[in-house]
From TrEMBL:
The protein's name: Uncharacterized protein
Region (Disordered): 137-170, 193-228
Ranges of compositional bias, category Basic and acidic residues: 193-207
UniProt organism field: Rhizobium oryzihabitans
InterPro entries: EF_Hand_1_Ca_BS
Amino acid sequence: MMTTGEEISWTNARAVLRDIGMPHLDWAHGVAVNIVRQCQNTRHRPTYHQQTFLEAESPALLAYLEKLASSGDSVGWRTLRDRVQVHADTLRDSDMQPCRRPWLAAIWHALPELAAIGQSILDKPSKPKSVADFEVMPGSADAGSASGNGGDEKGSAGKTGSAGTVAKPKPSARLKLPIVAFILTEAEKKALGLDKPASDADARDEVTPDDPDETNRISGPEMSGGFK
């Protein structure tokens, strides 16, 4: 049973899709557009049912919005506005059929980019891993082996697909966004914390050799999801 907040969210989602001239889309697209709009207006992260929705449908988009909210200044939110504005200008200058709420339409067109940026945030390690993170406790391998086959040398109880071991299939996401390439502005890199190397090794990789003509020059890591 849905809560009152969820019912209002789905009602607003249907209105959003109608206003941008895309009532044929899954209502999840309307929910995502409305969440981005509200976060931009309030400069706060998604909460309650909005957070629950994005956790299930687009963790990458949730990571992007949470990162903006945690930046603590208005610069990050301005980068969101500027990215949406690019799509708004494109829609205005194109021959596409105008809609009732062009800014919401621009947010919908920006969703794949926002999710791609959010995925790059998720892919970036929060801190370098130490050797201890990869250490295996003595006897853990033997214990795992015994639990996997029930102590039987033939491993009859550990066969894949045996009764009680099949995982339930995960429901397909309703918010299906295409994977797109993107280029971050300097303001976005700073606001999202993507301007710093993830580890000391990355920092060493970004050092430019003293000889500008050196053939075996070390290059910095490429942004995940960006242009090669």
